[in-house]
Amino acid sequence: MTTSACNPRLPLTDIKTYSARDRVNLVTVDTLLTPGISKVPAWDAEGFDTLVDRIRQARSKNRPVILSMGAHVIKGGLSRYLIALMREGLVTHIAGNGACSIHDFELAYLGGTSEDVPTAIEDGSFGMWEETGKWMNKAIAQGGQQDIGYGEALARYIAAHPERFPYRDDCVLYQAYQLSVPATYHIALGTDIIHQHPTVDFAAIGKTSGIDFETICHTVSQLDGGVYLNFGSSVIGPEVFLKALSISRNLGFETFAITTANFDLVDLGDFRAPIGGSDPLYYYRPRKNIVNRPVSCGGAGWHFVGDHRETIPNLYHALKNSLSTIAHNK
Fold it and tell me: How far is CA 148 from each of CA 1, 155, 221, 295, rounded to the nearest angstrom?
């Protein structure tokens, strides 16, 4: 391999890695919240009941419900809620960034995830975890050879090596695979700890994540009458969604009667009011790319403020109660 004189490279081949089994984890499977057992915190917001009803209507008409997320959904201990939403047919597509897949994968084999970054960055040990990097990069490389997506590649690897993954029942991407629910991961190169590993294959990451992009484009193309939910992804999720929606409309798919909702800690005030570039909130991507622009020709968008440990359990239980009421009244 040659190196351009004007673009010198720092090779990763001599990176030192360490076993994750010796690491202190800030999140463990013992702290995961469990539907039906963990207490549901008090939380509500204007428009939430309408959103719940729209999700129920979407599923009654066999329309998609996409749940996009940032990594703090997994780090917040909400994996079992996501799995329950898929298992009960309330969510039909899971989407996330690379960090989502890493925390999910680590919980599956290690029973813990989320290292102490402030101390680890001081000596360059941050993210240099042998099992995480080696196994994930191996799975992704195999996925590239098999022409499958990033999420499916990781799930197949877990299925092929069950002895390494004693906690796979709590793994979102693995359970999605078992349930035939698409789980797609949309990767920005250089942002994830497995990109630091000496075995990284950027071509394979690009190929498999590209396949996942085509998969989410397919789901979005069927979204008329469906729902797109975003939990805490402030850049990747909103940008992927807007591009997938543009592709769908460019190809002639009816994708106008859609419902969108963004859940985050950021308080946008009147999120439907016009806003100019002098306001810093103008540059908050979910406001434009999820709540407002996609529904300019129909449908409706919402922004809900709350911690994921409040909003996701309340969403699950509201949907369960809604479905139970309908069944009782029949």
Answer: 27, 11, 20, 32
Residue 325: predicted pLDDT: 55
- Asked if residue 212 lies in contact with residue 205, where contact means CB atoms within 8 angstroms, the answer is no
What the block records as the tokens of 213 is 């992009």
At a CB cut-off of 8 Å and minimum separation 6, what does 188 contact?
97, 98, 236
Report pLDDT digits (tens) over 133-181. 999 999 999 999 999 999 999 999 999 999 999 999 999 999 999 999 9
CB 230 within 8 A of CB 68: yes
- The pLDDT score that the predictor gives to residue 328 is 39
The residues with which 229 forms a beta bridge, in sequence order, are 67, 261
pLDDT score for 1: 52
Predicted TM-score (pTM) of the model is 0.95
> Could you tell me if 109 and 99 are in contact, meaning their C-beta atoms sit under 8 angstroms apart?
no
Closest among 315, 232, 314 to 266, alpha carbons compared: 232
Q: Which candidate, 290, 295, 293, 291, places its Cα nearest to that of 258?
A: 295
Enter the DSSP assignment of 289: I
Tell me, rounded to whole angstroms, the distance of Cα 98 from its chain centroid.
8
Angle (CA) 10-186-73 rounded to 5° is 110
Q: Note whether 73 and 103 are within 8 A (CB).
A: no
Q: How confident is the model at residue 3 (pLDDT cuts 50, 70, 90)?
A: low
Give the contacts of 289 (CB within 8 A, at least 6 positions apart): 238, 239, 241, 242
